[in-house]
Amino acid sequence: MDLFRPEYESLCASSPDWGKIALLPWDEKVFGFPVADFQLGPNPPRFQDLQSFASALEDFSARTKAELVSTHAPGHNMSVTAFLERARFSLVEVSLVATLPRIKPGSLPPRRMTLRKALPVDRAGICDIASRAFQFGRYHTDPQFPRQLANERYVSWIGNALGLLNPHNLVFVLGRPGEVLGFMDVVICDSHADLRLAAVDPNNNPGIAGFSLYAETLRALLDQGVKSVSAKLAAANTPAMNIFSMLGFHFSNAETVLHWHASRPSNLRS
Questions:
Q1: What local confidence, expressed as pLDDT, does residue 3 receive?
Q2: pLDDT over 60 at 54, yes or no
Q3: Residue in 91, 172, 170, 85 with CA at minimum distance from that of residue 126
Q4: pLDDT digit string (tens) for 167-226?
Q5: 9-95+256-261 and 99-253: same fold?
Q6: Secondary structure string (H, E, C) spanning 171-240
Q7: Torsion angle defined by CA atoms of residues 48, 50, 51 and 55, in that order, rounded to the nearest 10 degrees
Q8: Pair 172, 117: CB distance under 8 Å
Q9: For residue 211, what are the CA distances in angstroms to 33, 65, 155, 244, 260?
Q10: Can you give the residue ranges of every domain in the chain?
Q11: Which CATH superfamily is domain 99-253 in?
Q12: Residue 139 pLDDT more than 50?
């Protein structure tokens, strides 16, 4: 059994179609307190269900000690987002999916910087960048969530990726041997690559480095037999959106991302 796999249950036993909820064990390990994820069901609650829905969230929080519950809703369905906000969820992010259906070698810009696979000696430099480079992501854009813990989540993420002996999960480093200007965590399935986590040193020409990181990653993925690429990103992350646009990606699947906070949390900001 995977101890870090969320175990979802109906939020409300009498209305299972509202959706399901689970604690997030991996995030709890990093943060030191429980947080949860709520996934809307086929028949989300409506405004007449507001009191029952809010009570179900409070009951779950009281039972599990979860101080934060995250959820997401289709970007086009503002009535669902409005309902969730009435139930004390707060909008923290709008996310998009960037997709490149086919990597075309001739469309890639000339190589400007070196990209290579991460080595054990790069770990400290990679984790240092992960601890200070991020401004986006739902924990970073939640004003009630401690920034240090949000940073630590990404440090743990990339640390785990570096520890995997898995040919389908690659970590690339931007920079010559002994130099770490940025990193990219990639998961490959068949001929498709998911760009999971990327960052460059914010103190070292991040504009040029950021573009080179993505461009050289595409070049390296071609060598791995990858044909298509996708990534999830925050719509407010305009530097990343500009890079994706210049490299030929298109955008879809807009979602609103919302957080619910316990009434008297011990670990969140008031």
A1: 57
A2: yes
A3: 172
A4: 899 999 999 999 999 999 999 999 999 999 999 999 987 789 999 999 999 999 999 999
A5: yes
A6: EEEECCCCCCCEEEEEEEECCEEEEEEEEECCCCCHHHHHHHHHHHHHHHHHHCCCCEEEEEEECCCHHH
A7: 140
A8: yes
A9: 37, 42, 22, 9, 35
A10: 9-95+256-261, 99-253
A11: Gcn5-related N-acetyltransferase (GNAT) (3.40.630.30)
A12: yes
- The C-alpha atoms of residue 91 and residue 109 are separated, in whole angstroms, by 37
Q: Which residues of 22-47 are buried (b: 16+ CB within 10 A; e: fewer)?
A: bbbebbbebbebbbbbbebbeebbee
Tokens 């530097």 correspond to: 239
9-95+256-261 has which fold? Answer: Aminopeptidase (3.40.630)
Amino acid at 3: L
Specify the 3-state DSSP secondary structure of 94. Answer: strand
- Residue for token digits 């609103």? 256
Relative to beta strand 115-117, strand 169-174 is antiparallel
How far is the C-alpha of 174 from the C-alpha of 180, rounded, in Å?
6
CB 30 within 8 A of CB 155: no
Tokens 């989540």 correspond to 153
Other C-beta atoms within 10 Å of 126: how many? 22
User: Residue 45 pLDDT more than 70?
Assistant: yes
Nearest to 58 by CA among 269, 268, 266, 260: 260
